[in-house]
């Protein structure tokens, strides 16, 4: 179970910081810093820089991403921004535009 769930009808603008996993089903604009994992579900929109242990993208993310472990772009997911992570997977049907730095 996720520590925080941002529901599909919710829009948050500003800076979000969490020690636990965050699941985004709605909209986040600003900055997202999480010690655990971040999951962006299909239909969700994140217009923010994201720093997390891991990131799973099923929706749309616009912003730079830094993950200490991995970034997974799922089918239907879209990421526009630079990625800094030890591992990056891009599923068939996902979209990515940006630069990748895997020197973590």
Automatic annotation (TrEMBL):
Domain of life: Bacteria
InterPro entries linked to this entry: BacA/B
One Pfam family matching this protein: Bactofilin
PANTHER family attached to this UniProt entry: HYPOTHETICAL CYTOSOLIC PROTEIN (PTHR35024), POLYMER-FORMING CYTOSKELETAL PROTEIN (PTHR35024:SF4)
Family: Belongs to the bactofilin family.
Protein name: Polymer-forming cytoskeletal protein
């Amino acid at each position: 179970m996720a520590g925080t769930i941002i529901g599909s009808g919710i829009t948050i603008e500003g800076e979000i910081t969490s020690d636990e996993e965050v699941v985004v089903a709605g909209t986040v604009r600003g900055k997202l810093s999480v010690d655990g994992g971040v999951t962006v579900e299909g239909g969700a929109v994140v217009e923010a820089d994201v720093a997390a242990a891991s990131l799973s993208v099923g929706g749309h993310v616009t912003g730079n991403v830094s993950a200490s472990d991995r970034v997974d772009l799922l089918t239907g997911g879209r990421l526009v921004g630079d990625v800094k992570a030890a591992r990056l997977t891009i599923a068939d049907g996902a979209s990515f535009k940006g630069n990748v730095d895997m020197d973590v």
